[in-house]
Write a structure and sequence with these properties.
Elements: H1 4-8, E1 16-19, E2 29-32, E3 46-50, H2 61-71, E4 76-80, H3 90-99, E5 102-106, H4 112-137, H5 139-142, H6 151-162, E6 165-170, E7 175-178, E8 190-194, E9 201-206
Parallel strand pairs: 2-3, 3-4, 4-5
Antiparallel strand pairs: 1-5, 6-7, 6-9, 8-9
Helix pairs in contact: 2-3
Length: 217
């Protein structure tokens, strides 16, 4: 899984860790909010970005804000400085320390969307890596695409492990086999992974069979 340390290690973002959390949390999503209680809209693993518009630097409700995010098991809080607060409010820092929620600084003028795009890229790269790893682990089975093994059976097994819609492609792009949902995911962005050195077999990856529905606050 993509992790917080990978996000913080990207020098072009200039993110600065102010308070470490418990371990190196995995990232699932990014949400921007100025709400005090966002917990009911979260599923865990999110980066929560805020500028603190709703709270003053010493507002005691920072504790409630962080407590709610801690219960939701977010990955970290990213605070944008220079917009509503010149520095991260001490009350927020204290609450993050108390609840062991990672807190990092987003410098001005870096837009929040840059952080969102960086997380999306990390998650997508991780998903492709997982797909490639699953295929390598089942290379003996994939060899059956040229023999007696049914490629559809192999794809079904990999799809179950990765949660993606998959298709096995020939060098000319012809679909040799696919999972049931691949055709329905036609409008979604696709990635291809070469399965051999000469590119005679490629894996097409599209959509997510376990896609989440999120409720916007």
């Amino acid at each position: 899984m993509a992790t917080l340390s990978e996000l913080l290690a990207q020098p072009e973002l200039g993110l600065r860790l102010i308070q470490a959390g418990a371990g190196d949390p995995e990232l699932s999503w990014v949400s921007t909010t100025e709400l005090i209680d966002l917990g009911e809209y979260l599923e865990g693993g999110e980066i929560i970005l805020t500028t603190g518009l709703s709270l003053s630097a010493s507002d005691s409700r920072w504790r409630d804000f962080v407590a709610s995010l801690s219960r939701a098991q977010v990955a970290a809080i990213g605070f944008g400085v220079g917009v509503n607060h010149d520095h991260i409010p001490p009350a927020l820092l204290h609450a993050a320390s108390t609840y062991r929620v990672a807190l990092f600084e987003v410098p001005l003028p870096l837009p929040f969307i840059a952080v969102s795009k960086a997380v999306a890229a990390l998650v997508r790269t991780d998903e492709l890596r997982a797909t490639r790893g699953a295929l390598q682990a089942q290379q003996r089975l994939l060899d059956g695409a040229r023999g007696d093994q049914d490629p559809a059976d192999v794809l079904a097994s990999v799809a179950q492990a990765t949660g993606k819609h998959l298709a096995l492609l020939a060098s000319d792009g012809a679909v040799l086999a696919s999972t049931a949902g691949f055709a329905a995911a036609d409008g979604l962005e696709r990635e291809t992974v070469a399965l051999d050195k000469d590119g005679s077999l490629r894996l097409a990856v599209a959509g997510d069979t376990r896609s989440r529905q999120r409720v916007a606050p």
